[in-house]
Amino acid sequence: MANDYIVKDIALAEFGRKELNIAETEMPGLMALRDEYGEAKPLKGSRIVGSLHMTIQTAVLIETLVALGADVRWASCNIFSTQDHAAAAIAESGVPVFAIKGQSLEEHWDYLDKSFMFDEGPNLILDDGGDATLYILLGARAEAGEDVIAVPTSEEEVAIKAQIKKRMEASPGWFTKMRDQIQGVSEETTTGVHRLYDLVKQGQLPFPAINVNDSVTKSKFDNKYGCKESLVDGIRRATDTMMAGKVAVVMGYGDVGKGSAASLSGAGARVKVTEVDPICALQAAMDGYEVVILEENLDADIFITTTGNKDVIRIEHMREMKDMAIVGNIGHFDNEIQVAALKNHKWTNIKEQVDMIEMPNGNRLILLSEGRLLNLGNATGHPSFVMSASFTNQVLAQMELWNNGDNYKNEVYILPKHLDEKVARLHLDRIGVKLSKLDAEQAAYIGVAPEGPFKPEHYRY
Ligand code: NAI
Fold it and tell me: Which residues bind NAD(+) (predicted)?
């Protein structure tokens, strides 16, 4: 089909290609998979729907899937995270992509719908946050007569439910057909993984899922070291504020919180942390951060949510914040901050993804990316090198689902440790890491094989 894409400006393709070429030099894991499997084409016959931030790094992922034989169609998983030159380069290469930075919520679901439109239908999903999976499963439940799209309670829900209704009217039975045709999903992030485990609990997961997030070489690298680089990048590009000396409160001290606190601290901010989990609170304290209650620290300069939870910064908190406080989120969804409660306030748009909001007492807040993940909305997300580790896991997961899917039940799986170690190994040369070797006696003494895996399953890194 001619022009089977929606991008901002196809003329950006050349710029996108130049940055893609640079990114390839920083993504050794993906390039190694192309070398190892490019000829065998283990993804031949697969038709993959991708729903993941359409960035330069994702473009290298897409081209790796294609090099391994997959047919791919792509949408972004967030309305602000697309890099338009990356989308243009992918469209120009002939891969259908539907993504524009700053698209509306209605477009978000419409574009996702378009990414399912293979002639013969898709057979795999590569998801980030679970929207592609949710779309199909919610639609199939609606087709089964369940009352799941009747009463939307948020803007997001209005948009997805309207899109489901539209598709049901245009193609009766479509969602059920899609659901039955999908052979598996690989999920990128913590929040999407939570959704998958919930589905299993409710007996509602209709195909096997691979939890890519909990590969060690994903969450302990992307979520942590990725945010360490990209959080402050986002705040700086948005505000140009002096970070050193400012007081920042980071909510949540999981993997993303650890990277975010380190990011702000590295820039010279005085960082405080809030937590609900005593283990993570103790970790934060022993990493040198004051662990506090948000309500007692509303005089800080910068507030960042990293929890994957909802209603963490509420309207009553924002009413107490000082003039020109910066408020942002780096967790997957925008419901960590009660942005909806600000809608009836006076908003002044400063530039794309930066708004100043006047509170009733006259104080102004700077809100980043309307509460959506600011490292992708206000900057360009994580650097290529760390995304290479995440996406190498993604490709291995897709290969596993495609070639050995029959071995899996409709549950959530993590890739085996030898593959996790392989992903790490593929990234060592690029940064000059030299590995020591175990001799046979040493290996026997600690109870491992000399070539690994080097740790038991319960080891936590
Ligand atoms: P995690 O589960 O490791 O950490 C979340 C932490 O927040 C936990 O320690 C939890 O105890 C804490 N928490 C929950 N509710 C809280 C509350 N009300 N107040 C204070 N702390 C609270 O999850 P992870 O991997 O750190 O991911 C967090 C979010 O970031 C998820 O939504 C994930 O999908 C997203 N993510 C975003 C990335 C990005 O580039 N923007 C990259 C990777 C993940």
Answer: 189-191, 223, 252-259, 275, 309, 330-332, 375, 382
Greatest alpha-carbon pair distance for the chain in Å reads 71
pLDDT tens profile 388-403: 999 999 999 999 999 9
Is the pTM higher than 0.95? yes
DSSP 289: P
Residue 85 falls in the annotated catalytic set: no
Predicted local distance difference test score (pLDDT) of residue 152? 65
150 token code pair: 């009747």
User: Are 340 and 413 found together in one domain?
Assistant: no
CATH number of the domain within which 98 lies: 3.40.50.1480
Quick: pLDDT tens for 181-216.
999 999 999 999 999 999 999 999 999 999 999 999
Pocket-forming residues, ligand 1, beta carbon under 6 Å: 189-191, 219, 222-223, 226-227, 251-257, 274-277, 280, 306-309, 312, 330-332, 373, 375, 382
Share of the chain above pLDDT 90, in %: 97
Residues 20 and 121 in one domain: yes
CATH number at residue 257: 3.40.50.720
Question: Do the domain assignments include residue 409?
Answer: yes
Helix 155-170, helix 131-143: angle, nearest 10: 60
Annotated binding residue at 310?
A: no
Same domain, 71 and 185: yes
Question: In sequence order, what are the residues at sequence separation of 6 or more whose Cβ sits closer than 8 angstroms to the Cβ of residue 52?
Answer: 58, 61, 74, 76, 77, 126, 127, 128, 188
Residues 111-148: pLDDT tens digits? 999 999 999 999 999 999 999 999 999 999 999 999 88
Residue 218 annotated as catalytic: yes
State yes or no: is 227 an active-site residue: yes
Q: How far is the CA of 312 from the centre of ligand 1 (A)?
A: 11
CB 41 within 8 A of CB 69: yes
Sites in the chain below the pLDDT cut of 50: none
Q: Which of 24, 143, 188, 214 is catalytic?
A: 188
CA 336 – ligand 1 centroid, Å? 10
d(CA 136, CA 112): 10
Quick one: pLDDT at residue 1? Answer: 62
Closest ligand 1 atom number to CA of residue 280? 9
Which ligand 1 atom is the nearest neighbour of the CA of 190?
34
Q: Which atom of ligand 1 is nearest to the CA of 255?
A: 26
Which residue range(s) make up the domain with 121? 10-217+382-420
